[in-house]
Amino acid sequence: MGRGFRPLGHQRLEPEEMLRRAVEFHQVMDRRRSVRHFSSDPVPPEVMHELVRVAGTAPSGAHKQPWTFCLVSDPVLKRKIREAAEEEEYTNYHGRMSEEWLKDLQAFGTDHHKPFLETAPYLVVVFKRVYEVMPDGTKRNNYYVNESVGLATGMLLAAAHLAGLVTLTHTPSPMNFLTEVLGRPANERPFLLIPIGYPATDCQVPDLERKPLDQILVTYGED
Ligand code: IYR
């Protein structure tokens, strides 16, 4: 796959410009929120394809790029996904999740109803590719698959936000039904389910605060 090395082609920024860009990017990203109430307004498919292209720029273990992004807009498939997810979630909310977990979720107002799986114009179902099947049928393991696919998904969320769209990082559990509904091969495992679209007109989000820098940053070597 590799063809040797080539120059990086990097240009340094002035410190002020660096800081300006970093501050601005934080301001933009700080407005990103997980959204559970979607408009059904359509999103141009070219935009969605571009978001996936951004996700595909993520770093990955040994550059194996162990991801597949399924872009679902077919209403029949969306309904199947909703029905299967709601069935699993019903079991989660009625005995499979601990009391502590249910209490932690109260602030988000979630339950087993997942209408957004049908309302959102697109569902991006992210699959991790645990191994690759060679032409001779042998299997080759990928490396740091969760880390790689997590990074790619984060970049997808950032790209969607920058494009003026909203997302939900949804984790129906267990997620095996996605393999079946989408007819994915055995080397792919569902990783995350991400509805993408515009927010509903009256969309509300939980009134949350992010941890301040001094709670998430520990410095070593600064004065
Ligand atoms: N998967 C369930 C429960 C759930 C779990 C966590 I952690 C969340 O942050 C939100 C929901 C659901 O989707 O409802």
What does this structure look like?
The chain is of the alpha+beta class and 223 residues long. The chain has a single domain (34-198), classed as NADH Oxidase (3-Layer(aba) Sandwich). Helix content is 39%, strand content 14%. α2 packs antiparallel against α6. The mean pLDDT is 97. Bound molecules: 3-iodo-tyrosine. The site of 3-iodo-tyrosine (IYR) has 9 residues, from α3.
Listing every helix as H and every strand as E from the N terminus to the C terminus, the arrangement reads: HHEHHHEEEHEHEH
What is the total number of structural domains? 1
Helix content: 25-40%
Q: Tell me which ligands are bound.
A: 3-iodo-tyrosine
Shape: globular
Any key phrases for this structure?
binds 3-iodo-tyrosine; two-stranded antiparallel ribbon; globular; NADH Oxidase; alpha+beta; four-stranded antiparallel sheet; 223 residues
Condensed summary:
The protein is of the alpha+beta class.
List the helices and strands and how they pair.
Layout: H1 15-29, H2 45-55, E1 67-72, H3 75-96, H4 99-105, H5 116-119, E2 122-129, E3 131-133, E4 139-141, H6 145-162, E5 166-167, H7 177-181, E6 188-197, H8 213-216
Antiparallel strand pairs: 1-2, 2-6, 3-4, 5-6
Helix pairs in contact: 2-6
The chain binds 3-iodo-tyrosine.
